[in-house]
Amino acid sequence: MRKIASVHARQILDSRGSPTVEVDLVLDDRRNGRAAVPSGASTGSREAVELRDGDEERYGGKGVTKAVANVNGPIASRLVAEPVEDQAALDVLLRELDGTEDKSRLGANAILGVSLAFARAVAASEREPLYRSLGGPGATLLPVPMFNVLNGGVHADNSVDPQEFMIAPCGAPSFSEALRMGAETYGALKSVLKRRGYATSVGDEGGFAPNVRSNEEAIEVVVEAISKAGFRAGDDVVIALDPAASEFFEDGAYVFKKSDESRRTPAEMVAFWERWVDRYPIACIEDGVAENDDAGWKLITQRLGARVQLVGDDNFVTDPALIRAAAADGIANAALVKPNQIGTLTETLAAIAEAKKAGYGTVISHRSGETADDFIADLAVATSAGQIKTGAPCRGERLAKYNRLLRIEEELGSRSRYAGRAPFSRGPTRR
Length: 431
Ligand code: PGA
Ligand code: ZN
Fold this sequence. Notes:
With 431 residues, the chain is of the alpha/beta class. The protein has helices spanning 65-81, 87-98, 108-126, 130-135, 175-195, 215-228, 266-279, 294-304, 320-329, 339-342, 345-357, 375-382, 396-412; strands at 4-13, 19-27, 32-36, 141-142, 144-151, 164-168, 238-242, 249-250, 253-255, 263-264, 282-286, 309-312, 334-337, 361-365, 386-389, 417-418. Strands 5-6-7-11-12-13-14-15 form an 8-stranded mixed β-barrel, surrounded by 6 helices. A 3-stranded antiparallel β-sheet has the order 1-2-3. Helix 2 (87-98) runs antiparallel to helix 3, helix 7 (266-279) runs parallel beside helix 8 and helix 9 packs parallel to helix 11. The longest helix has 21 residues, at 175-195. The chain is globular, with a radius of gyration of 21 Å. The mean pLDDT is 97. The structure holds 2-phosphoglycolic acid and zinc ion. Zinc ion is lined by residues 242, 244, 286-287, 313, 336.
């Protein structure tokens, strides 16, 4: 049994300067936990509801004072009144208190902040690091980082349609070496872009946001940067894409609005990615088709599922039931995991378990609007997820997670293992 002494939330700002919720939770043994909630831009339509004030006079309507008041009012009074058994019991209590399917009454941002702060307080109470408190002594697997080095879509004001061009140093011997390879490739990409006369300003997730001439040029500069940094593209370092295709799917067609206005049917969209997989060292595609394009998802899985990892994000929204249903339908072969899409830690863990049960890969993920909170780094190790994506090796809120993983690897010492090529066994070198 855990007795909660106090719960207090406040409004802080995220990496886009938008308000978000931070929660401090203290147990009666005075151990405490703090957590901050991230926020997406290319959200799935079935995500749990992020409660915003809607008062246009303040932060353009994006304030979260109602969510904060829900923590400091009804949630706090309920939680300090009765002891809870564990995380699962706390999360059930929070869901009951909210009473809606989509957490829209109290707000998923209010609920998740409390859920994560509780997990941290429990770890502190156990005097264990968070990854071990959540994952037990077997939590020793460091994830492959997927660095988002070139930003497009709704994360950047440029000419690039796919939202994320990521590099995954799966050939590294350890996480710290993967981080070095990622940072060196990122540096090489900066010089490639400069030489071509492009700006090296960055997008929301720290990747460069150049106005390249075509989407092809965007992937070509990334491939060039990998070899310029001295690594073998498709072997040491593979490419992962998140086109976030829901963002450019309109009336049944995929439209590359930011580059050349080209339109594609779902079948043509899948054929387009197939050509890219043929031409470039791509090992992973997330949301290559839109969340509500079930036929497109089935087709892309049939055409590419044996060659690349296909990650569901907008269509799965970290919902165990949606992942189970998709697996039964032959949709995707991996799941993205974003705690704020579902709103509690227990349901996030259930989504990971559901994905693993289906034999799906798991990628723990940040949001484009982030804080310095590094919870997802511990979550990736706790669940042996094998992969994490948390932006470029640039911008403090992204590095917070990668640097936390460095510290975890150091702490585990010889017990640590690196996920390496296993998550990408369908990828380019094994073809
Ligand atoms: P978001 O983007 O955080 O803006 O939703 C991340 C993603 O689509 O994976
Ligand atoms: Zn995505």
